[in-house]
Specification:
Blueprint: H1 6-9, H2 25-37, H3 39-56, H4 59-69
Length: 70
């Protein structure tokens, strides 16, 4: 399996509408524009993703997962 598959990088890490995916190049440009001109939207998204990572995806979490499997 491909280590960079979208499933590995998305569903296993980010949930709750945290992942932003463009449907096509025009949608991509719209998303870039929205996040560029709206710092509050950008900050909200950054904070939500940071919280997910800190609550679920630190080295401590990974070490616990490994130890739980031993």
């Amino acid at each position: 399996s491909d280590v960079c598959s979208s499933d590995l990088l998305t569903e296993d890490v980010f949930t709750n509408d945290e992942l932003i995916v463009a449907d096509d190049p025009d949608h991509f440009q719209d998303l870039i524009h929205a996040f560029t001109i709206n710092p509050d939207l950008r900050k909200e998204h950054i904070d939500k993703c940071h919280e997910t990572v800190m609550n679920n995806h630190t080295y401590e979490h990974r070490a616990k997962q490994i130890l739980d499997k031993l």
